Amino acid sequence: MNMRMAAALCGAALLFATASHSAPKSLVKIQKISKVQAAKIASLGYDVVSIKDNYAEAVLDKTEAAALSSKGYSLKTLIADLDKYVAQMKSTQNKTDSYYNYAKVETVLADWAKKYSTICRLESIGKSCENKNIWALKISDEPQKNEQEPAVLLMGAHHAREWPSIEVPMAVAEKLLSNYAENADIKRLVDTREIWIVPVVNPDGVIYSMEKSKFWRKNRRKNADGTYGVDLNRNYGYQWGNVGSSNSGYSDTYHGPSAFSEPESLAIKKLAQREKFQSSISYHTYSELILYPFGYAHNANNPDSKIFIKLAEEMAKINGYRPQNSAELYPAMGDLDDFMYGNEKVLSFTFELCKSFIPPASQIPSFTLPNVEAALHLIDKAGTYAMAIPGNNPRLIENLGFEDALNAISDISTIFGDERNIVIRNEVLKQVDLISKRLAQLTVDDLKQQSTEKWQRLNSEQSATLAVSYVRTRLLFDEGHNPGTYATELINTVKNK
Ligand SMILES: [Zn+2]
pLDDT of the chain along its 497 residues, tens only? Predict the structure, then answer.
């Protein structure tokens, strides 16, 4: 632990141990501060929700606001009573134009599981503190089987008050299910990927936020000190700690008594370790950002940052958001992405949707449409970019289809063609070797069927030279041992290459 982290830890402990707090909470603009100052405030455990070039926005009660004012920060109240604001938002909803609540999510998921039973199945991956099901919808052909296909996890509502984060994963599910029959691109994704949707990671918090009209962020754990709630996005077990999170049950960024103390984060951990995902998105609001790990500290080494940055930039082109390293926004320990990547080697992203926590329901299509497209891109690239990461799931490459394998070779060559770090280069070369062997095997199988289609495609892909040489070796070996396995013409072409 460095000095700065130690200082932040003490600061957070002192702040919350001594303060007394009172409702209501306000959305407050902290004016004329640098990003560094904003990050420092966040690292103390204040609920900073948005950081811009020269100001930040935070959710504060009166005591917290007074503490910041006394340190000389200039505060401006944007929304005085967030509870009233949520109540107002609810009153703008109507039947045709409204946010999903937990009950509706349950009903709709169950309906889809019935209606599209050949390409999806519904599973409860655990129960919340208050015994509500945490639902996961798996979308894939042969949904009952684990087919060792590239797998993707999309999650909403780690944080209760961030209602749009439920809309996007539900919209992705709907797009995949309802377009499968007619749309060849969607069919390809569903057939060759395993896509898991957990729209409400935090059912109790969402119900509380919607029904009690509280501006609630955490789950509904009854803490030992009589307070309620653990911040689920600070409760994951990779670099769980006290930077950007708090050890006080009162705080909105309370990290819980230990890593994975909460059934909700534990359910996600178990699912991740069972399914071995290649990529994931956790949806939050707000700021229109695409964040990638690590988040626990500035300049934490991410050996796969080239892939993260490439993929983040591509998705940002689709939805117009800004790609950014998570700790650059502000360091926070114990979040989902750090666990998913640090522990499970998943290409994990956090999307901060929208420009406010809960935009009017009439705006739902304006943020779901571009974000569905961004998610489809991630689902696609789970079968190519993710293959560059060693140790993720060795069985995956053995089962990769020809198209994905060829695209993987091409994508990896684009990303790592000029890689100078010898350790990374060696790791990537090992992966390229495995993928090339897979490509060669599929091509040889094709040639044995007297088809040269794959062989020609392999030869026309510049970055597939290793696979070509594997095919060549194999053909000449077979010809030496079993003459006549392949057409003489083909053997002559191979010999002359
Ligand atoms: Zn959030």
Answer: 343 433 333 334 334 433 445 578 899 999 999 988 998 898 888 999 888 889 999 999 999 999 999 999 999 999 999 888 877 777 766 555 689 999 999 999 999 999 999 999 999 999 999 999 999 999 999 999 999 999 999 999 999 999 999 999 999 999 999 999 999 999 999 999 999 999 999 999 999 999 887 789 999 999 999 999 999 999 999 999 988 999 999 999 999 999 999 999 999 999 999 999 999 999 999 999 999 999 999 889 999 999 999 999 999 999 999 999 999 888 999 999 999 999 999 999 999 999 988 888 889 999 999 999 999 999 999 999 999 987 777 789 999 999 999 999 999 999 999 898 999 899 999 999 999 999 999 999 999 888 999 999 999 999 999 999 999 999 999 988 988 888 888 888 887 76
Residue type (1 letter), 422 = I
CA of 353 to the centre of ligand 1 (A): 10
Pairing type for strands 289-292 and 322-325 reads parallel
User: Class of the 98-387 domain?
Assistant: alpha beta
Q: Tell how far the Cα of 359 is from the centroid of ligand 1, in angstroms.
A: 15
Q: How many whole angstroms from 290 Cα to the centroid of ligand 1?
A: 13
Rounded to 5°, the CA angle 284-344-180 comes to 60
User: What CATH code is assigned to 3-80?
Assistant: 3.30.70
Examine residue 286 and say whether the peptide bond preceding it is cis (omega within 30 degrees of 0): yes
Domain ranges of the chain: 3-80, 98-387, 400-496
352 catalytic residue (yes or no): yes
Half-sphere exposure of 72 (CA within 13 A, CB side): 2
Dist. CA 352 → ligand 1 center (Å): 7
pTM given for the model: 0.89
Structure-block tokens of residue 220:
């509904």
DSSP state of 349: E
* CA of residue 337 to ligand 1 center, whole Å: 12
Catalytic residue among 314, 352, 461, 479: 352
Residue 168 contacts residue 371 (beta carbons within 8 Å): yes
CA–chain centroid gap for 416, Å, is 23
Distance (angstroms) between ligand 1 centre and the Cα of 34 equals 22
As a 3-state breakdown, the chain gives helix, strand, coil percent values, each rounded to 5, of 50, 15, 35
